[in-house]
Each structure stands twice: as structure tokens, then as C-alpha cells.
Amino acid sequence: VNQMIFDGLTVLQHRGQDAAGIVTSERRRLHLRKDNGLVKDVFQTHHMAELRGNVGLGHCRYPTAGSSSCAEAQPLYTNYPHGICVAHNGNLTNTHELTDVVRDTMQRHVNTDSDSEVLLNIFAECMMNRTGRGAAGHGCEAEDVFAAIEGVMEKCKGGYAGAYLINGVGIVGFRDPHGIRPVVLGSRQSSLGNGKLDYVLASESVAIDTLGFNLERDVRAGEAVFIDMRTGEMQSKICHPDASTSPCIFEYVYFARPDSIMDGVSVYESRLKMGEKLAEKVLKLHPDHDIDVVIPIPDTSRTSALQAAYCLGRPFREGFIKNRYIARTFIMPGQETRKKSVRLKLNTIKSEFAGRNVLLVDDSVVRGTTAREIVEMARDAGANKVYFTSAAPPIRYPNIYGIDIPTMRELVAYERDEEQIAKHIGCDWIIYQDLKDLEASVSTTAPPDQPLEKFDTSCFSAKYVTGETIGDEYFTRLHKLRNDAAQEERRGAPLKDSQSRSSMTGTMHSAPQSMDGCEPVSNDKRQSVTGAGSSCEPLN
């Protein structure tokens, strides 16, 4: 299963370039490899040779708070009960309170204030309460796993999704009761021809497609999917009484690949609709515009820009060429790193700008770092006028569910109107998408049998869908962790209260396969996770 997980993480590399990790299970032994860096750099041939087994997890990480230390990489591990690993995508909003519960009430050791470590220990404690001290793989049935997930969802607040690997038992995928973070399920016929199925869980459907699986469906809000490695059977259950789907709309705006499908919605189709709505607003506000050409800011905005150009009746041109070996600037730690990266990442085709009035289209504007540099590059290339549009509304509030949208004071739209923002980034005018149009861009492309009516839009609206009161104390603590100065100061050192954004894939495979790894499970590191397991042979 090692190659499958490696390939899945490579496809999901866009979700995080900070660290990568894989853990596999072989005959009740766990093999772990994780480190800072890209997937292709973390896993060499000798690492892969040691990641043996027919079940595993993989994870790609970028930090939404805290350091880039490899100590933050995932999967994370606890030895009791059974031996459990977790790959987690998202952020708990009550980590501070839960850490005290885990340490003082459950009397479990927590080495950091990491929300993923808390999430792991709460599940482990709930499992122990159900199965006691039984040997690995014994006395642990589907109802025990679902009861443990119910305990997790009762205690943990925020947006989270991921997978647990229970050594000798199987994999359980889960999604928070609001469905904020994504998880999809896929399957395929076993290559053994025994009528069994292989299963995969992933953050995005593109990983399922690439691995040759069929997309079954999205894991529902509040649902747990248990893949039993002893029998090859898959069972699922809604584990929260008030589950209701409100996916993070920023996934459609920026994070997801355009060829992914999330909650039944084609990301590509939703971005086309964003471009259409954006063009309508341009025509409404500037009916006599003098736009000569529409140019996207690579890569995410390309789809929206293409449709906007079509609706405006203006040519679409590639004015920026991207160096694909530079990471995405939005998820890069540190303001100076991001500013330097913009010029390294993009270069202009001067003939597309010279003497023209250009309309630049970006997916969103967060700090304004990229926008300001790009407007300057367009003017340096000879643009007469530079207009700027965003397929998303102004981002004025932090995201607390697992996307590193920073503290309010670092947001370019904080206490600025559109005219002030245009002056700040140096363009002639700027237009943002209306929130209602953004929501309509996604909801109107949903299939009739899977309607989407609610979204987490907190970074635009300050409406946090989990419903709990997010007080000033929480945002003060968040600011101390997320602001660029603090992160630069702590770069390379272990940090408290660190959350990670990640991609997760899980598979249930019908025959044992080898997977490269380099170290036994011993120390906790935060990483993105991929999971795989066997559907026909027990691990002895």
C-alpha cells in the first residue's frame, strides 16, 4: 500500500508543502516516516522499502499556527489502546480546554498543546472505555469504533476531518458535525478477484481518481466510516444527533484542485460560475469600461478569469508565467518569504501588458502581498491601467477551522474599503465578488439530489457555523500564534497551540502490499495522512 499512499499524497501536495508523513501497519507493527519537505523529498527508496503493510495513513501539512518544525508533522501516534495513529485536517476551537481534560481527567500524557494530539488522545480514551485492555484487534467491533467517534464529536468543537488507524483493527474516517472540512470515499474491485473491495478515503476526489478508484460519495457531516481490515467490510454511521453540512466555501475558491468534486459540486464548474458573477458586477459598476484584456493570476484564478473574459467580451490572455517549483504563496510561512516568492514565482509576458488597460483576476486577496507585487509587475511591463478583481469577497476575519487566514490586522481588507484597498495595492480600481454571488456560484452547481444550502463563510462574514461563542480571549491567543512576527521569531522551534491544514487519504486494500518507511513509530510529528488497509487477510 506504500506506493498508493505516496501517489495519493503527491496528488494532494497543493494542500501543504511544509511536511509529509506515512505510517503503515504490518502484522501489528507500525512503520513511520515523516519529515519536513515535499512528498518526493521526504520519501526515498530506502524509506519506502521499510513502510511495509497493507494498511496505512499519509499526510501533507502546512501549519495554520505554530512552527514549521518536523515535530509538528503527522501522522501522530499513541500506543494505548491497540496502537492508534491519526491524520487530521482542520482546527479545534476548544483545544485549550480539552488539553486540561486529557491531562488532568483522563491522565493521558500530552506533550504539546497541539489540537491533533488532543484529538488523538480523546479518541484513544473513548476506545479504551469501550474495549478495555484487550489485545490489539480483539474486543473491538464497529459499534465500539462508532461509540468512540461519538465521544470525540461530543467533546471536540471546530472544523475537523481525518482518519484514525487502529492497529490490527482497521481505519475509521470521520468528518465534523458541520462538514466543514472535506472527506470523500472511493472503492474498487480487489485485484485478487475474490469479490472483495478496496477502499480509499481522501481529502479530495482527485486522489481517488488518480489511484484508479471509483468515487463513491462524500463522507457526510458527523459521519464515521469504518473499514475493518479483519473482514474487508465497510460500515458507516452518523455519530452526531445534530449533523448538518456547511462546507468551507474557501475550498471552492482556492484550496481544492479544479478537477476535484466536493459535496457533489465540481470545483471547476463553481469557479466558472464565480467568473460569470464577477463579470456581471464589473458590467454593473463600470458599464462603459475600457478593459482591453483579461489576465489571470496563476493558477487558481484561471478558470474564473476565462469565464469572466467570455462574459465581458474581451480576450483572455496569459500575461504571467509561473515557475512551478515555487510553493503557493498564500500558505508560505512569513511575510518576507511570501513577498520574495511572488517575483520568483511569476514573470510577465510584456507584450500582453504594453499600452493596454488590463483586468487582473485573482481567486482572493488575503494580506495583499501578492496583489501589490503583481500590480507593480503589470505596470513595469507597460500596462496603461491596471484593474483588479477578486473571485471572493473581502477577507476581513480570521478563519478558525483550519485555513491560515491570519489575524485581522494583517488582512488588507481590515478597516479598509475598496477605494483604500485599491490605493494600497496600487491599482486603478478593485472589485470584489459579493458573498451572495459566491454562495450561489457553488450552490447552483450542486446536483439536485445533494443540495448545498449552507456554507462556512466566516472569513468573509464573521459568522462561525459551529455556533459556540468565540470570545476575545480566543482571538488574542490566535493572534499571538498566527501573526507573522511571532511565527518568524519561533521558526524552527516547537510551538504550542499549533493546528495544521492537511490532506488525508485512506484506503482499504484487499491484499498486503509493501510501503516504504524509515523509522518505527516513536515520536509525535504532524503531517498529512493517507490510509490504506487490507480487506481479505487478517494481520497476525
From TrEMBL:
<dbReference type="InterPro" id="IPR029055">
    <property type="entry name" value="Ntn_hydrolases_N"/>
</dbReference>
<comment type="similarity">
    <text>In the C-terminal section; belongs to the purine/pyrimidine phosphoribosyltransferase family.</text>
</comment>
<dbReference type="InterPro" id="IPR029057">
    <property type="entry name" value="PRTase-like"/>
</dbReference>
<keyword id="KW-0808">Transferase</keyword>
<feature type="binding site">
    <location>
        <position position="300"/>
    </location>
    <ligand>
        <name>Mg(2+)</name>
    </ligand>
</feature>
<dbReference type="InterPro" id="IPR035584">
    <property type="entry name" value="PurF_N"/>
</dbReference>
<dbReference type="GO" id="GO:0004044">
    <property type="term" value="F:amidophosphoribosyltransferase activity"/>
</dbReference>
<dbReference type="GO" id="GO:0009113">
    <property type="term" value="P:purine nucleobase biosynthetic process"/>
</dbReference>
<dbReference type="GO" id="GO:0006189">
    <property type="term" value="P:'de novo' IMP biosynthetic process"/>
</dbReference>
<dbReference type="InterPro" id="IPR005854">
    <property type="entry name" value="PurF"/>
</dbReference>
<dbReference type="InterPro" id="IPR017932">
    <property type="entry name" value="GATase_2_dom"/>
</dbReference>
<dbReference type="InterPro" id="IPR000836">
    <property type="entry name" value="PRTase_dom"/>
</dbReference>
<protein>
    <recommendedName>
        <fullName>amidophosphoribosyltransferase</fullName>
        <ecNumber>2.4.2.14</ecNumber>
    </recommendedName>
</protein>
<feature type="compositionally biased region" description="Basic and acidic residues">
    <location>
        <begin position="485"/>
        <end position="494"/>
    </location>
</feature>
<keyword id="KW-0315">Glutamine amidotransferase</keyword>
<feature type="compositionally biased region" description="Polar residues">
    <location>
        <begin position="500"/>
        <end position="513"/>
    </location>
</feature>
<feature type="domain" description="Glutamine amidotransferase type-2">
    <location>
        <begin position="1"/>
        <end position="230"/>
    </location>
</feature>
<keyword id="KW-0460">Magnesium</keyword>
<feature type="binding site">
    <location>
        <position position="362"/>
    </location>
    <ligand>
        <name>Mg(2+)</name>
    </ligand>
</feature>
<keyword id="KW-0658">Purine biosynthesis</keyword>
<dbReference type="GO" id="GO:0046872">
    <property type="term" value="F:metal ion binding"/>
</dbReference>
<feature type="binding site">
    <location>
        <position position="363"/>
    </location>
    <ligand>
        <name>Mg(2+)</name>
    </ligand>
</feature>
<dbReference type="Pfam" id="PF13522">
    <property type="entry name" value="GATase_6"/>
</dbReference>
<keyword id="KW-0479">Metal-binding</keyword>
<feature type="region of interest" description="Disordered">
    <location>
        <begin position="485"/>
        <end position="540"/>
    </location>
</feature>
<comment type="pathway">
    <text>Purine metabolism; IMP biosynthesis via de novo pathway; N(1)-(5-phospho-D-ribosyl)glycinamide from 5-phospho-alpha-D-ribose 1-diphosphate: step 1/2.</text>
</comment>
<keyword id="KW-0328">Glycosyltransferase</keyword>
